[in-house]
Amino acid sequence: MNRIALLIAAAATLFATSVAAQENTGNSAKITLVFDQELPNVPGKSLRVVLVEYGPGSGSSSHRHPSSAFIYARVLEGAIRSKVNDAPERTYQAGESWTERSGDHHQVSQNASTTAPAKLLAVFVIDTGHREIVIPDR
After folding, report:
1. Is it the case that residue 18 has pLDDT exceeding 50?
2. pLDDT digits (tens, 9 = 90+) for 25-76
3. Beta bridge partners of 35
4. How far is CA 37 from CA 16, 61, 87, 88, in A?
5. In degrees to the nearest 10, what's the CA dihedral of 46, 135, 58, 15?
6. What distance in Å separates the CA atoms of residue 66 and residue 105, rounded to the nearest whole number?
7. DSSP string, 87-122
8. Could you tell me which of 46, 39, 51, 38 has the C-alpha nearest to residue 12?
């Protein structure tokens, strides 16, 4: 599965010039939709890819994703601190990746550096009808 996910991430990067939407989360995190395509062989599912860019010291608030989502995330630049569920917090360097499953609670997602930017590519396999991909904690 890891090889397939890497190929998907590489292909999605090629589509980065066809930016479809951007969302600013308010804490200097910029989320850009770079690819969104229904899967022809899996009715009701889509492959959605976003580029997440964190300025120095910034990050996303604690959140979840829709229950239908399976996510593959790969750090493209810099380093990202991440904590999912009860797993210990970990810092991922450029080239490293992780996955998130349905119902996972992403408690920490932050640039590990206070001086350099960081970027990650998140590849979602998700129900086509789920348009909102990040659900902040209340």
Report:
1. no
2. 445 689 999 999 999 999 999 999 999 999 999 999 889 988 899 999 999 9
3. 49
4. 14, 27, 32, 34
5. 10
6. 11
7. SPPEEEETT-EEEE-TT-EEEEEEES-SSS-EEEEE
8. 51
pLDDT digits (tens, 9 = 90+) for 90-103: 999 999 999 999 88
> Alpha helix locations (H) across the chain?
2-14
CA atoms within 13 A on the CB side of 38: 8
| Cα separation, 66 vs 59, whole angstroms | 20
| 74-93 per-position pLDDT tens digit | 999 999 999 999 999 999 99
Beta strands 29-38 and 21-24: pairing type? antiparallel
Bridge partners (DSSP) listed for residue 4 = none
Report the DSSP beta bridge partners of residue 64.
105, 135
pTM (2 d.p.): 0.78
Q: Report d(CA 106, CA 124) in Å as an integer.
A: 15
